[in-house]
Write a structure and sequence with these properties.
The protein has two helices and eight strands; from the N terminus they run E-H-E-E-E-E-H-E-E-E. It has helices spanning about 20-30, 85-95, and strands at about 10-15, 35-40, 45-50, 55-65, 75-80, 100-105, 115-120, 125-130. Helix 1 (about 20-30) runs antiparallel to helix 2.
């Protein structure tokens, strides 16, 4: 018996002190859409980004009284596998133009056919030019 249905939607949430900037970076840099959001829910505001009907999306939240700070480690990654060379090049151009900073990978595994970028909060996105191994 499966614990979670195969078609369940997964939301990956993380805090930010830069809600509007992060929302714009991920929308422009990864081609996500703002698919939801809220303001003043208690002391929280948030934005959900993704693609309608996909089984995952990102949620960025900010708290009016608490600071989120920067990513706790250099290994806080979102990894995207883009096997097509032209689509990979387009993805690199898109993320580079959205305010992400290209950085050296902390883990040498990603130094082969991937490029690593850091957002304003220090969280990292890896664009890998290849198929997912899974």
């Amino acid at each position: 018996m499966r614990m979670i249905p195969i078609d369940a939607v997964m939301r990956v949430g993380r805090p930010t002190d830069n809600l509007e900037q992060i929302t714009k970076m991920y929308a422009d840099g990864l081609g996500f859409e703002v698919i939801g959001g809220f303001d003043g829910h208690g002391d929280f505001s948030g934005r959900m980004l993704g693609h309608p009907k996909h089984h995952y999306h990102l949620e960025f939240t900010t708290h009016s009284k608490e600071k989120a700070g920067r990513a706790p480690t250099l290994e806080n990654l979102l990894v995207y596998y883009v096997p097509d060379d032209l689509e990979f090049a387009a993805a690199i151009d898109k993320i580079s133009g959205a305010g992400f900073i290209k950085v050296d990978s902390f883990n040498p595994y990603w130094e082969g056919g991937a490029q690593t970028f850091e957002d304003v909060d220090g969280y990292r996105v890896v664009i890998n030019n290849g198929e997912s191994p899974f």
